[in-house]
Amino acid sequence: MKTIINIKEQYGSELHTRQMIERMAASFNPQDAYLLDMSGVEQISRSAADELYNLTHGSMHVDMIHVEPFVEKMLSAVTLGRFLPRQHTAGDMPIVHCDTIGSVLSQLAAS
Amino acid sequence: MNNGSKILSLEDILTSFFIALTKGNMDVPAPFSMALWSIFHHTSSPLIVSCALDDDSAAETIRQIKNTLFTQKPELPTAFNSPLTYLCDELICNIQQHAQTDKSHIYAGYNPQSDSVEIAIADYGVTIYGSYVAAQKHLDKLGDSDADALNLAQNGYSVKNLPDTENRGYGISSNIRMVVNGLHGEFAVMSGNALLLQDATKRKILSLPRDIDFKGTMILVRIPAQIPNDFNMYDYMS
């Protein structure tokens, strides 16, 4: 028998931080199974989604139902982030050494 | 520049700020400039909010930022909500996880002259350089300056142990891409004595004169209120 947790009722419609998910996980009994009802949860940060990934793919029996479209997309993004190699595509930025305020102002004015 | 009627770019804001530093007072009436001045000098101002950014405070702070902006500009497109939340989430999580401080200041405002949203999120912590050193990460690439550390951060190098198996270290790099490439905005970071500036025409890091040293990290963002039709937030999440 799975325990159903209504996330919106307990934590609100926006999940912002890893700590929020960690706090929820800490309240779970590792021997039990849980079903997270995500209906009405409309916003989630990458960090919170990433921590949800840990929770639902870890040693505890935790699944999600009724995942809203935005949350679904964020979960997909963090799942992809787990399997794609980290890219450092931005490349180095030029570093300009400014010894005076005047040189700072010149750099700000230059295109 | 300082008559209050000109549309100020983020470069203009920073220029007026550095000029004011040499004069010792800020006489540019633009709220974003005044907020930057107050944050840099760690002084209270009705324009900025001091927050602790613990778990509950972070969620409340993000709600406050959104409420402020949507109250000042009710016509902001609802499509603004998701990238705004993503931006604030990532930057505030960065402070929580890396800055080693509970002191932060936040400014959010709508600028009707430029029809843009302006946000500053600042902490008074260990700086980006300090967070790499504290974590003993990427020391081989780090060099010895705040500018080198900013360069690593903008390129997505995480201070966490599991950047390749967890979604860590995206905060600054993904937000720069989203703000500049996706939303056609401007992005600046001041950390220690370095300043990163990126917009449609500039992409550089300034190593500032030694006497200019911000004891923490400050992110400045300016985003046009009109979201481009082809903007897709998910393009910037990986």
Written account of the structure:
The complex is a heterodimer of chains A (111) and B (238). Chain A is α/β, with parallel strands linked by helices and 111 residues long. Chain A has one domain (2-85). Helices cover 44% and strands 20% of the residues of chain A. Chain A has helices spanning 7-11, 18-26, 46-56, 69-83, 101-109, and strands at residues 2-6, 14-15, 33-37, 43-44, 61-65, 95-97. In chain A, the strands form 2 sheets. Chain A has a 3-stranded parallel β-sheet. In chain A, strands 2-4 form a two-stranded parallel sheet. In chain A, helix 3 (46-56) crosses helix 4 (69-83). With 238 residues, chain B is of the alpha+beta class. Chain B has a single domain, classed as Heat Shock Protein 90. Helices cover 40% and strands 20% of the residues of chain B. Chain B contains 8 helices and 7 strands, in the order ααβααββααααββββ. A 7-stranded antiparallel β-sheet of chain B has the order 1-2-3-7-4-5-6, with helices on both faces. In chain B, a hairpin with a 4-residue loop joins strand 2 and strand 3. In chain B, helix 5 packs across helix 7 (146-154). The radius of gyration of chain B is 17 Å and the shape is globular. Residues 1-5 of chain B have low confidence and may be disordered. Chains A and B meet through helix 2, helix 3, helix 4, strand 6 and helix 5 of A and helix 1, helix 3, helix 4, helix 7 and helix 8 of B.
